[in-house]
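Run: sequence + 3-methyl-2-oxobutanoic acid -> complex structure.
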Amino acid sequence: MSDNATTRVTIPSLRAMKAAGTRIVALTAYDYPQAALVERAGVDLILVGDSLGMVVLGYPNTIPVTMDEMVHHAKAVTRACRRSLVIADMPYFSFHLSEGETIRNASRFLKEAGAAGVKIEGATPARLRLVRALVEAEIPVMGHVGLTPQSIHRFGQYKVKGKETGEAARIRREASALAKAGAFAVVLECVPAELGRRITRDLSVPTIGIGAGPDCDGQILVFHDLLGFGTEPLPKYVRTYANLAGVIGGAVRRYAEDVRRGAYPDDAHSYHAAARPARTTGRGAAGRGKVS
Ligand code: KIV
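>> structure
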C-alpha cells in the first residue's frame, strides 16, 4: 500500500511509487463486493480486466467481451472504490476501427463508469498512434506487451513471450515506445524475469508484471486465480492464496443436504404468525423473529 492508507492513488502517485522503490500492488476485480474487499485490503490499482470474459462470463477466451459488458462491470467496481485507482480494459474490437471510435469507447469508461484510465493491448505503430490520441484526449493509458491474450488466434496458444533474443528485443522496444507515446504504466505479461527486470530499468513509468518476475515495479494477478475461485488450470506464475472454490462448493453442498433432509429452514430461521390480540386487553403479543 502507498504511504497513506486513505489518500486516493493517482496516476502521478504510481510514478512516485516507482521513484521511491515502493512496489505497486494491483489486482483485477469485476463487481462491487469484490472491489470493496480488494480496496479494503489496500490494493493500489484495480484493473477491470477483459479476463472478465473468462472468469466471470464463461467465454472460452477474451475475444467475445463487449464494451457494454466492460462498462457495466467497471461501474460496479468504481462504486466500491474510494482509494484504489481503477483502470478498465479496452476489449477486443473496441479500438480497431478508427481513432474516433477508440476515443469514444475509451471515454465511456471515464464518463459513464468513473474509471481513471484504460488499458490497451499491443504496441504496433497503429496502436502507438491510438495511445497518443487517447492521451491527447485526456484519457490515461496503461500499455500491455508480452503475452497479449486478445492475440490468441494469431499466437495459437497462451505461451511465454520473449524467451528468444529477437523477440525479447522487440518486446523491449515496444515497452519503450509505449512509454514514449504517453502510457502511464506498462503491463508485462508472461515474459522471462530477466526481460521484466531489463524493461523495468529502461522505463521511467512503472511496469506491472504478471508472470514477468520479481523485479517489475508492481505485480498484478487475476482475482479468481489468487483466490482459487476458478476451474481453469492455472499458469505457473499464479500463487493461490485461498481455496474459495472449495469453501463455496462445500457450503453449497451442506445447504443442499440440509434442504433435502428437511434440516433447513428450522425454527430459528422461520417466521411465525402474530398471536391473535387478547380480547380482554386489546394488546397483541409480539411475533417471533425479525419480520420486515
Ligand atoms: O484482463 C486482465 O485481467 C489482464 C491482466 C491479466 C493484466 O489483462
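>> summary
Residues 165-181 form the longest helix (17 residues). Residues 244-269 form one domain.
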